[in-house]
Amino acid sequence: MTATERPAAVAARPVSLRLPGIVLGVGLGGFVDGILLHQLLQWHHMLTGTDSDNIGVRYYSPRTVSGLEMNTVWDGLFHVVCWLSVLAGLALLYARVTRRRRRVWGSRVLWGWVLAGWGLFNLVEGVIDHHVLGIHHVRGGPNQTWWDIGFLVLGAVLLAAGYLLRRGGGFVDDDTERTPDTDRAPGTGPGAGTR
Description:
By secondary structure, the chain is mainly alpha-helical. It contains 6 helices and 3 strands, in the order ααααααβββ. The chain has a 3-stranded antiparallel β-sheet with strand order 2-1-3, with no helix packed on it. A hairpin with a 4-residue loop joins β1 (about 170-175) and β2. The two termini are about 30 Å apart.
């Protein structure tokens, strides 16, 4: 291969959907957590476990106006991080998929990585916030350890399901020929299509 042929060969290589999918999944998983557990069910807020935390953060009771205000501020900061993660995931996806962008949204590979990212969010957030720092628990009270373990189990299940969904995806080119999954974006590389 000559020097002039090398850039074309590199450009023809498919790009990975792994990083955009995982980053999107982390942000979307965080939004599910924040909207469902913090706002709709009101099982916890970011600082509702600080009366028994492991780092000495002042307790802000969600049953007082000032405590709820402080918890709402921290919930808002949490949602900002989720929003930035979704924006970053979309930017990564947009930068990597340059053709047939609509087809990527039907890709099992992309949605597998999104599920894996959500599972990764649950595992990291669950271990750090619920167990290491102890600043909140999924649902405080006498059974809080079981709720926290259940959150981690859900994260592991989402991670495994995403990985399996991603592995079950294939790359389908314009002639509907199925080739093995390569974790690559549709519309990129030889035989560009969707997976």
